[in-house]
Amino acid sequence: MDIARRFESNPLITPADITPSIEGAIVECVFNPGAFIFKGRTYLLMRVAERLTQEDGYVSTLVADPTGEAGVRVVRWALDDPKLDTSDPRFIYYDGHCHLTTLSHLRFAVSDNGVDFTMNPLPPLKGANKLEEFGLEDCRVSRIDDTYHLTYSSVSDSGVGIGLRTTRDWRTFTDCGMIIPPHNKDGVLFERKINGQYACLNRPSGADVGGHFLWYATSPDLRHWGNYACVAKTRPGMWDSVRVGAGAAPILTDRGYLAIYHGCNEDTRYCLGAMLLDTDDPRRVLARCDEPIMEPTTDYELEGFFGNVVFSNGQIVDGDRVTVYYGAADTTICAAELSIDEILSILL
Amino acid sequence: MDIARRFESNPLITPADITPSIEGAIVECVFNPGAFIFKGRTYLLMRVAERLTQEDGYVSTLVADPTGEAGVRVVRWALDDPKLDTSDPRFIYYDGHCHLTTLSHLRFAVSDNGVDFTMNPLPPLKGANKLEEFGLEDCRVSRIDDTYHLTYSSVSDSGVGIGLRTTRDWRTFTDCGMIIPPHNKDGVLFERKINGQYACLNRPSGADVGGHFLWYATSPDLRHWGNYACVAKTRPGMWDSVRVGAGAAPILTDRGYLAIYHGCNEDTRYCLGAMLLDTDDPRRVLARCDEPIMEPTTDYELEGFFGNVVFSNGQIVDGDRVTVYYGAADTTICAAELSIDEILSILL
Do A165 and A140 meet the contact criterion of CB atoms below 8 Å apart? Predict the structure, then answer.
């Protein structure tokens, strides 16, 4: 049952709204934004995926490089090089080493009403070290007291793990390094300590045994994490049968932590669902929806770079109303409103 | 160049030496032992993999269960159940959920001379919680001051991660939980703090990007880990082209930390190699051998449950001599001596 009230002006932001990082780059997708309130205004921290226009006879791609122009560097190979393999549109393999054909970074947008956004109120965030050379993806923003905690996928040829940076003013950032190793995505902090510890949800991927399940971990200091526990698995035959992962920070309600999460099935159809986690021990799932609370139905969700996808890692809570900012078809940014009470009534 | 001097009495320990945990269980393999000195004697902490004899019309397997007889429980399915899938000899799938056909636990052996071992000087260590239901595998033992640190693969239907228990007396253990989430194996602690922090090597597995690479992490308190960094990747075209992973605790030498590690290639041929890591920053690889220092050559290494494998996660250092205890063909326990100087002379 889709209970999301989509904004009439969806999609709110499309690739045409985004200036490429450097000449020759094409913005392929703008999607999966983190969301936060700063000084009374709504900010999005959007994932921008860029691809280079290709010269005849060569294949080239962007790599994050803090010493390069606009924080990127071009890597180029001759197409007739026998060590080159470009058979997979997502990857460039050269001599056994892998590069991505697109590079993602994080771009800001700001709004006074949560609907009409102005681009680039702050400088973009880009990969800053070896473990971020293939970019930053799908940033969550969790606020604890006056500090914003940015958790994102750090991508490189070493793999995909969870990186963390913190800031109070959005001008200076503390880099806490890679806090959870590959293969892990969908990391997000709870917005208050639980039993005296920081806590997060994350999504390791198994090999042979295990799967793409939702996990929990705790930390005394943000930089070091442990006490890993599996919270929720995929459910065979259901809409979240293949992958599950956390969305934005779970919402503290008087019934528990409400976690809006994503799941996908064998058709790689991504929907949003909800689960309720115990307030004092969020490893305990108190309730989980049988059906999605939002599923891809509109044109802009069904068709795009990767169709049949609604994916959210950013939301703004105002009383009973949660505004979910979401990536539609991995191509544009949209928004929808849901009622927390309505989600809870489905769950309980 | 194989520079290992194998013990004449290899294999030292075979499945016939191991008493099954319960009636009906068959010891399939005894392999991949951790090794340590306690009160002047050499101990092995062996991985014992057991399988159940099968009744007509049923398939059954063991699951670790601290409340069960001998710490295990039998799970059984009727072969004619349409929800059952036994097509993969390693796994039993039922209604989308996975079990393993063998269960591993850790068994002790003790010796006065490092060659002739007596079984069961101490009670076995078995899976003790949900994340260890499919067993404990490939335990490393790192001694820091008077405390032994056991790192092992914790296996369950949630995935494979690194668990840690510590002990001073081998009678009482402190369970530090899962310290690194799936998919991760080959976790081992350095035997002293580095820059005031505990440090470990571990082996996450990538998906899409990344691979089976050797990583580093640090901890202030053993339970929480961070500052993940990739130390060494697989090398295309070489003997360690597909997977690399740490062995026992790196050996502190005056040239750096000597890490004996395993690698395998496209033929799943497992060899041992060596690398030298910077003493103050073990993320820096100072040298790495081009060729293995030990490769499967003898009958007992070439043939067995999984042939063409030498794999070590336990060693005893005495001056220049390192005695490597290793699993041969995933079936038996063997030993070989190497000279640290000789390994260093190859590396430098």
Answer: no
How many residues are present in chain B?
348
Return d(Cα A335, Cα B28) in angstroms, integer.
Answer: 56
Per DSSP, the three-state class of A343 is helix
CB–CB contacts below 8 A, A to B: 173
Token duo for residue A2: 């889709």
Neighbours of B87 (CB within 10 A): 8
pLDDT score of A208 more than 90: no
What residues of chain A, 25 to 84, have a C-beta less than 8 Å from chain B? none
* Rounded-to-integer distance, Cα B215 and Cα B282, Å: 10
Q: How far does A336 lie from chain B, in Å, by closest CA? A: 31
How crowded is residue B172: how many other Cβ atoms within 10 Å of its Cβ? 8
pLDDT digits (tens, 9 = 90+) for B179-234: 999 999 999 999 999 999 999 999 999 988 999 999 999 999 999 999 999 999 99
* Contact residues for A5 (Cβ-Cβ < 8 A; gap 6+): A336, A337, A338
Written as one letter, the residue type at B51 is R
Report the gap between the CA of B12 and the closest CA in chain A (Å): 31
Bridge partners of residue A229, in order along the sequence: A216
Token pair of B280 as six digits: 């103050």
H or E stretch at B156: strand B147-156
Instruction: Judge residue A278's burial from the number of C-beta atoms within 10 Å of its C-beta, 0-12 exposed, 13-18 middle, 19 or more buried.
Output: middle
Q: Report CB contact under 8 Å: B182, A206.
A: yes
Name the residue with higher pLDDT: B225 or A96. B225
pLDDT at A204: 98
Q: Do A90 and B208 touch (CB under 8 A)?
A: yes
Calpha distance B131→B94 (Å, rounded) = 19
Cβ contact, residue pair B160, A209, below 8 Å: yes
Q: CA quadruple B10, B11, B13, B17: dihedral positive or negative?
A: negative
Torsions phi, psi for B344 (to 5 deg) = -65, -35
pTM over 0.95: yes
Q: Residue A223, CB half-sphere, CA atoms under 13 Å: how many?
A: 13
Q: What is the pLDDT of residues B120-151, one digit of tens each?
A: 999 999 999 999 999 999 999 999 999 999 99
The residue length of chain A stands at: 348
Partner-chain contact A97 B159, CB within 8 Å: no
**Beta strands in A14-80, from DSSP E residues, in sequence order:** 25-38, 41-52, 58-64, 72-78
Across the interface, whether the CB atoms of A183 and B205 are under 8 A apart is answered yes
Helix then strand then coil, in percent of chain A rounded to 5, is 5, 55, 40
pLDDT over 90 at B1, yes or no? no
Q: Is the pLDDT of residue B255 over 90?
A: yes
Report the distance separating Cα B294 and Cα B262, nearest Å. Answer: 9
Chain B residues with beta carbon closer than 8 angstroms to that of A61: none
The per-type count for chain A, helices as H runs and strands as E runs, is: 2, 27
> What's the CA gap between A117 and A212, in Å, rounded?
34
Could you give the CA distance from residue A246 to residue A203 in angstroms, rounded to a whole number? 8
Residues 115-144 of B with CB under 8 A from A: 130-131, 134
The string of pLDDT tens digits covering residues A10-41 is 999 999 999 999 999 999 999 999 999 999 99
Quote the tokens at residue A256.
Answer: 């528990």
Rounded CA-CA distance B155/A45 in Å is: 37
Say if residue A34 is exposed, middle or buried (CB neighbours under 10 Å; 0-12, 13-18, 19+).
buried
